[in-house]
Amino acid sequence: SPQVVWSMLGNRQFCSYKMTTKTQNFCRNEYNLTGLCNRSSCPLANSQYATVREEKGRCYLYMKTIERAAFPRRLWERVLLSKNYEKALEEIDENLIYWPRFIRHKCKQRFTKITQYLIRIRKLTLKRQRKLVPLRRKIERRENRREEKALIAAQLDNAIEKELLERLKQDTYGDIYNFPIHAFDKALQQQDAESESESDAEREEDDDDEDVDKREFVEAEDSELSDFEDMDKLETSSEEEQEEEEEVEKKASHSKSKGKTPLKGPARRKRPYIEIEYEEETEPSTKTKAA
Amino acid sequence: PTFSVSEIKNKQRRHFMFLRWKQQQRKEKLALKKKRRKEREALGDKAPPKAVPKTIENQRVYDETTVDPNDEEVAFDEATDEFAPYFNRQTVPKILITTSDRPRGRTVRFCEQLATVIPNSHVYYRRGLALKRIIPQCIARDFTDLIVINEDRKIPNGLVLSHLPDGPTAHFRMSSVRLRKEIKRKGKEPTEHVPEVILNNFTTRLGHSIGRMLAALFPHDPQFIGRQVATFHNQRDYIFFRFHRYIFKSEKKVGIQELGPRFTLKLRSLQKGTFDSKFGEYEWIHKRREMDTSRRKFHL
Q1: Are residues B39 and B101 in the same domain?
Q2: Measured between CA atoms, how close is B203 to chain A, in angstroms?
Q3: What is the pLDDT of residue B277?
Q4: A232-283 pLDDT tens trace
Q5: Per-residue pLDDT tens over the stretch B248-266
Q6: A212 part of contact set with chain B, CB < 8 Å
Q7: With an 8 Å Cβ cutoff, is B54 touching chain A?
Q8: What is the CATH number of the domain that holds B109?
Q9: Could you tell me if residue B62 is inside a domain?
Q10: What is the CATH number of the domain that holds A19?
């Protein structure tokens, strides 16, 4: 009889479906209506019991009566509920007519909850699902290590510098930078007029970015052409304030021809301001070359 | 009649013997080197050329899809593929950068920095929109490329680059992302000038198409006044991205200063159409079991 069952399982002895926590007892039985371990909601301790369960999106009403208590196979009777919410509620009512109020109420509550979560599932599957791809530790470690080694093998700075110098050689920059090649230079040095202006230009470039060596002498000797190119360099370098120091290679090779001696810094800086007067004529043409 | 070092049971003695053995090996090696050097000098001019050390790049398994610069078939393909309009200067790149859902601070900042590096790019937040639905909108608004930065545990770790009007989609794994403030340098931020692009080491057909894809992000005419250069360097299937400012100190010397974010990419898959994970036609997927078997085999 149910009372005996309850007094054994519920309170004193062991029930395998019972799960205790600090505040509550839960029942893990799949036919349990509320999920708690109570006298009124234990499917084992009640000979007349009903539940609502869903399978593959359809809800069924399960009922157990005393008459079938001896036949475990036929114990639970299953009724398919309609998909329509109100109709299903009516079906529950008509199937559980004359049953205790508690069971009827709880069945309807459970059915409501189930339909709600089914709706949510259907909505979520339409949205984007986030697929979780597990990382594999060994593979991650291997790839990181290989990446480090590839980085070392790549020698990025050198590669970039080489590529930039290549591009400079192949004249992709056009006339922005006036670095004639060494051989060309030396060839020019033999010719008088051109060589002077060229070397002036180079020296000016080095001068621009250096804070150290200035030549007072240069100012007097400068031709107009070199001034304009100077302006060009100044424009480009002034756009970004860089603190790099420039090398004096060109100067070393050509200073001998002009016999310049390094002088103080501020003396040179005056030069740009003086030259502004000359710039107007060829300024636009140099700018268009750069573009 | 020495016993092998490993048979000594006493650990201290065994360790001692092992050290002694090691020293001996080193001495022998040094002696051998010296001898070889002497022989080399003795021969003088007649000495055989120095042996080139074997590197992974030297020993790389020859890939049959390596692009030959004079290959006509490749040239023809490239003239007719999806990037042809870009390379013929018919389209100006316009990039949309976005992230996965709910990006965290690092990813957001990275997106912003990326937007300063790539000219004509816009950052938009995802807010739960499906990619398949944004793509037609992007096409309608004339975007040429879509970049989605995927995030995991607050750091960006994936990049999906999709060329929009029906172009290929590449999915990369992104690693070692460094934001601007983490890079040790003294320069300022990148200006608005269009940078130059350097693509290094993209040798195979696959590498070539990826290289074109990356190049198509940048407008075609770099402004040399800006002196900025964006580099995609491929080494052993890892693509390193760097953004520098250069200055020519003389004709043989150039100084570079790193600005802008840096990251490395590893290609995971290349899809023919725009982003479609289920029905897309994959041109190339990285299959670990098959492709990672040899240390000297690379695909890009």
Answers
A1: no
A2: 15
A3: 66
A4: 444 344 433 333 333 333 333 333 434 334 444 344 444 444 444 554 455 4
A5: 888 788 888 888 899 999 9
A6: no
A7: no
A8: 3.40.50.10480
A9: no
A10: 3.30.390.110
Closest chain B residue to A154, measured at CA = B235
Domain span at B235 = 68-292
- Test B250 with A206 for CB contact under 8 angstroms: yes
CB atoms within 10 A of CB B300: 24
**Residue B32 counted as domain residue:** yes
CA of B17, closest CA in chain A: separation in Å?
34
Domain presence at residue B151? yes
Both tokens assigned to A78: 């299953």
pLDDT at position A180: 60
Which of the two residues, B288 and A251, has the higher pLDDT score? B288
> What is the C-alpha to C-alpha distance for residues A228 and B171, in angstroms, rounded to an integer?
50
If you measure CA to CA, which chain A residue comes closest to B175?
A: A144
- Supply the range of the domain harboring residue A7: 2-126
- How many structural domains comprise chain B? 2
Q: Which residue in B155, B173, B168, B170 sits closest to B111, CA to CA?
A: B155
Average pLDDT for chain B: 87
Please check whether residue B212 lies inside any domain of the structure.
yes
Q: Does B282 touch chain A (CB under 8 A)?
A: no
What is the percent of chain A with per-residue pLDDT over 90, rounded to a whole number?
Answer: 41
Over the stretch B74-109, which tens digit does the pLDDT of each residue have?
A: 788 877 777 887 887 778 889 999 998 888 889 999
At residue A10 the predicted structure's pLDDT band, cuts being 50, 70 and 90, is: confident
Does B257 share its domain with B139? yes
Considering the domain architecture, whether residues B39 and B122 belong to the same structural domain is answered as no
Determine, for residues B56 and A161 on separate chains, whether the beta-carbon distance falls below 8 Å.
no
Classify residue A56: in a domain, yes or no: yes
Q: What is the pLDDT of residue A185?
A: 56
- Tell me the C-alpha to C-alpha distance, in Å, between residue A41 and each of A28, A30, A33, A96: 11, 12, 6, 16
Residue A267 in contact with partner chain B when CB distance is under 8 A: no
CB contact under 8 A, B175 and A242: no
Q: How far is CA B205 from CA B71, B241, B273, in A?
A: 11, 20, 18
Is B139 in the same domain as B100?
yes
User: Which pLDDT value is given to residue A140?
Assistant: 92
In this structure, the answer to whether residues B22 and B137 fall within a common structural domain is: no
Interchain pair A244, B257: CB under 8 A: yes
Nearest to B236 by CA among B266, B262, B212: B266
Residue A254 lies in a domain: no
Query: Strands across the sheet with A58-64, in order?
Result: A49-55, A58-64, A76-80
In chain B, residues with a C-beta closer than 8 Å to the C-beta of A151 are 235, 238, 240, 264
Give the integer Cα–Cα distance in Å for B39 and B60: 32
Comparing CB atoms, the residue among A130, A147, A177 nearest residue B248 is A177
- In-domain check, residue A273: no
Q: What is the pLDDT of residues B38-49, one digit of tens each?
A: 888 888 777 777
Residue B18 sits in the same domain as residue B142: no
- The pLDDT value given to residue A197: 55
Length of chain B: 300
**CA torsion sign, B212 to B217 to B221 to B223?**
negative
In a domain, A230, yes or no: no
Please report the pLDDT score of residue A131 as a whole number: 81
pLDDT of residue A263: 42
Give chain A's domain count: 1
